[in-house]
Amino acid sequence: AVGTDGDIVCVKAADGQEVWRLNMERDLGGKMMSEWRYSESPLVDGSRVIVTPGMPQSTLVALDSKTGKLIWRCAAGDIGPKGADGSGYSSAVTAQVGGVKLYVQQYGRGVIGVEANTGKLLWSYNGVACSVANIPTPVIKGDLVFVSNAYNAGSACLRMTADGTGVHATELYKLPARTLQNHHGGLVCVGNYIYGGHGQNAGAPTCVELATGKVQWQASAPGRGSAAVLAADGRLYFRYENGVMALIEANPTQYRLISTFEPPPMAGTAWAHPVISDGRLYLRHNDVLLCYDVRGAAAK
């Protein structure tokens, strides 16, 4: 886990006993890109743990999952003028292109692709970085990378290709902020389409064809503020800042709101992402955890 002050900790699942601890700033030379604190989810990949210090000489690092020892350090350097140095609020994801495994991550300066085994920087993209807060985790489907940011940054789709020298990424298309900017809450890919909320501090449900960037539909938000989105069994779960949960059909041909409900009112914004496991929907709000049965009648 990564704490808000940049502490990276490994604990035993059985009893919570601490195994090792590092700090993103003190031990790895990192910093946050803006005033808000760390919120990255570390990526555990076999014997490696991937975290994001976010600085030019220490952009992405791989740690030994059992000891915390540094395995490699990726120094991305200067990848462009947009954005700001430091960690963003995204989490690293894996991709596989032409037999090459890589980690894709968005940080303060943009998006990077890093070779998993060596930490070598394979490609970078600065096109939709902003200087306030780069938040959404990149969405990977095959050789495509979809990334979005708010603060008038917009969205883009990159195509990764492999050749004898490694893996490269080129911009397939770019969408202006007025068309799609995901502030926070993220995006999901269902089939060949991207779904998520659009707007600054807003979550207007939107469907975009991944291969072309064509907007299939965009609708008024059933809740207030940004929306964290989750996909399960052909449906989309949108959780809005004001607590409203909306169930939307993952259908590229039309927008169809199935239902909404409001959990018990609590202070503050509902920013924690929803989770579904074994037919149960988990919603965290501050120090309260709510659990709902979302299985269909036939499954009960």
Compose a concise summary of this entry:
The protein is an all-beta fold. It has strands at residues 7-11, 18-23, 43-45, 48-51, 60-64, 70-74, 93-97, 100-107, 110-115, 121-125, 139-141, 144-149, 154-163, 166-175, 187-190, 193-198, 204-209, 215-218, 227-232, 235-240, 245-249, 257-261, 275-277, 280-285, 288-293.
Descriptors for this entry?
300 residues, mainly beta, four-stranded antiparallel sheet, 46% strand
What can you tell me about this protein's structure?
Helices cover 0% and strands 46% of the residues. With 300 residues, it is an all-beta fold. A 4-stranded antiparallel β-sheet has the order 3-4-5-6, with no helix packed on it. The chain has a 4-stranded antiparallel β-sheet with strand order 7-8-9-10, with no helix packed on it. A 4-stranded antiparallel β-sheet has the order 11-12-13-14, with no helix packed on it. A hairpin with a 2-residue loop joins β13 (154-163) and β14. The chain is globular, with a radius of gyration of 19 Å. The mean pLDDT is 96.
Q: Strands of the largest sheet, in order across it?
A: 3-4-5-6
Count of discrete alpha- or pi-helical segments spanning 4 or more residues: 0
**Number of DSSP-assigned strands:** 25
Helix percent reads: under 10%
What profile does the largest beta sheet have?
4 strands, antiparallel
What general form does the structure show? Answer: globular
N-to-C SSE string, H for helix and E for strand: EEEEEEEEEEEEEEEEEEEEEEEEE
List low-confidence stretches. none
Strand content range: over 45%
Structural class: mainly beta
In whole angstroms, the N-to-C terminal distance is 34 Å
What would the average pLDDT be, to the nearest integer? 96
**CA-atom Rg in angstroms:** 19 Å
